[in-house]
Design brief:
The protein has helices at 49-63, 74-83, 96-117, and strands at 2-13, 26-38, 66-70, 87-90, 120-130, 133-140. By secondary structure, it is α/β, with parallel strands linked by helices. It has one domain: 6-pyruvoyl tetrahydropterin synthase/QueD (Tetrahydropterin Synthase, Chain A, 2-Layer Sandwich), CATH 3.30.479.10.
Length: 142
Amino acid sequence: MKIAKRFRWEGAHRLPWHEGRCRDLHGHSYCMFVEVEGEPDENGLLLDFKHLKLALAPLIDEWDHGTLIAEKDTKLRKIMEDAGWRHSILPYDTTAENICIYVADHLLATSADMLRERRIHTVRVRVQETETCYAEAERSVT
């Protein structure tokens, strides 16, 4: 059985090494689906959607209307800090692929016990930057 919850946020980022327009600071209306897979309980419930919301809402709230910055992008980081603008530092480049990995790992780091208790064995995260493109990552709950 699989269930999924959708999350949305507005945010900016840049890929300073990119050869196209993504090199410049730009924004997205991010849409993310977090899917969990496992065995439902005796009542047919895999996981109450509120548990996914509680686990990820702090992260989404932190990112909403802010700028995601790669740790090594010291130029943008300094600008944001000097201006006092809302931003979050990620340990790697802010591609959709890396955001998927970050969210999946965050969910496992903060909620693995709860997921195991609910007999969930797989987590998938899909991040859409636009209507027409997305990245997806999968992690096993161990």
